[in-house]
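Journal club side-thread
Mid-discussion, someone asked how the predicted structure for our own chain would compare to the paper's figures. Pasting it here so we can look after the session.
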Amino acid sequence: MATVIRLKRGGRTHDPYYRIVVMDARAKLTGRVIEELGIYHPCSRPEPIVEVKEDRALDWLSKGAQPSDTVRNILSKKGIMAKHAGGGVANAPAVSAPTESAAAESAPAESAPAESAPAASEPAAVGEAETE
């Protein structure tokens, strides 16, 4: 079954609130909900209220649930999409280790052009002497 994470509207005219829910992709907007993941109150003051069950959202994303555009923005602002793309907190140290080794490999490559740079400037100095 194809599942989506979308917003389900509630409230009244000019005062909406939304539930962040997991539904079957073929269901109506007011159809049966598989699970409620959180709430979104865009009209609350001074700031919109967003509450998301992070562990459940990550679980549904890992199962292949597709978030709607608005839900994707909400999850991105909460940092959930970044955790999903990165594979979670457990894989974070493993991701940073190759970055350090890549930096170590690029360090000798940076020193090689620095040595060739003075050699390139020497002929320019000889050329300047010839023009004078």
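Post-session note: Residues 97-125 form one domain.
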